């Protein structure tokens, strides 16, 4: 898939930029998760504290290689996570030492999702790995379910926008603790 704006968005990601892109439910903000300056800029734009952590989205499970410590999950819990992907399910999974603090925030785990959304899959494939996925709104403001709802003040601070439409979910993806299955966000 080549969504309009995809090449520009991927170039922006590689250059340390922050982009907007559609996800399963809402428009997201993304950047290179291993680029501290990019993540801190994204958080400053969003007005979100670093200690909350951010979600990483990938288009394929192998894009998380070396980041998730599956050995710290019971086998049945790991199977439940794998069975839910690709799809609109975000899980907190124990992180390896490779996951930087600006991603995990004040947490031991990392929030991850293997998406089936075609724009997310295409972005991650072209970028070569997972990207940050947080709603494209200022902290405390309602999320944008359609592109026209994106705040113009937010858009003015971004380095790219990938065209496309959200996947039509009525709410952001649920977040669950992979160790227990407990739902942390409905």
How would you describe the overall organization of this protein?
The longest helix is centred in the N-terminal third of the chain and has 11 residues, at 36-46. The protein has a single domain, classed as DHBP synthase, CATH 3.90.870.10. A hairpin with a 4-residue loop joins strand 1 (19-22) and strand 2. It has six helices and nine strands, in the order αββαβαβαβαβαβββ. The mean pLDDT is 95. 42% of the residues are buried. It is globular. By secondary structure, the protein is α/β, with parallel strands linked by helices. It has helices at residues 6-14, 36-46, 75-84, 101-104, 118-127, 152-155; strands at 19-22, 27-30, 55-58, 90-94, 109-114, 131-135, 160-161, 175-177, 183-185. Strands 7-1-2-6-3-5-4-8-9 form a nine-stranded mixed sheet.
Name of the CATH homologous superfamily: DHBP synthase
Helix content: 25-40%
Alpha-beta classification: alpha/beta
- Low-confidence stretches are none
Total domains, how many?
Answer: 1
What's the count of strands? Answer: 9
Radius of gyration over C-alpha positions, nearest whole angstrom: 15 Å
* Mean pLDDT value: 95
Number of helices: 6
SSE series: HEEHEHEHEHEHEEE
Largest sheet: 9 strands, mixed
Judging from the principal axes of the Cα atoms, what is the shape?
A: globular
For the largest beta sheet, what order do the strands appear in spatially? Answer: 7-1-2-6-3-5-4-8-9
Q: According to CATH, what is the class?
A: Alpha Beta
Topology-level CATH name: DHBP synthase
Rounded to the nearest angstrom, the distance between the terminal CA atoms is 30 Å
CATH-derived architecture: Alpha-Beta Complex
Beta-sheet strand percentage? Answer: 15-25%
């Amino acid at each position: 898939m080549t969504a309009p704006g995809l090449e520009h968005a991927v170039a922006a990601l590689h250059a340390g930029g922050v982009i907007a892109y559609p996800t399963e439910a809402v428009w997201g903000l993304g950047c290179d998760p291993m680029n501290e300056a990019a993540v801190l800029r994204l958080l400053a734009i969003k007005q979100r504290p670093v200690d909350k952590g951010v979600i990483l989205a990938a288009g394929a499970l192998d894009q998380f290689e070396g980041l998730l410590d599956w050995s710290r999950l019971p086998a049945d819990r790991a199977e439940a996570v794998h069975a839910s992907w690709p799809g609109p399910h975000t899980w907190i999974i124990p992180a390896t030492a490779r996951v930087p603090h600006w991603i995990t925030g004040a947490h031991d785990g990392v929030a991850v999702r293997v998406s089936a959304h075609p724009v997310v899959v295409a972005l991650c494939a072209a970028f070569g790995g997972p990207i940050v996925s947080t709603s494209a709104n200022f902290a405390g403001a309602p999320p944008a379910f359609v592109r026209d709802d994106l705040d113009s003040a937010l858009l003015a601070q971004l380095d790219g926008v990938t065209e496309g439409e959200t996947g039509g979910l009525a709410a952001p993806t649920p977040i669950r603790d992979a160790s227990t299955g407990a739902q942390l966000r409905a």
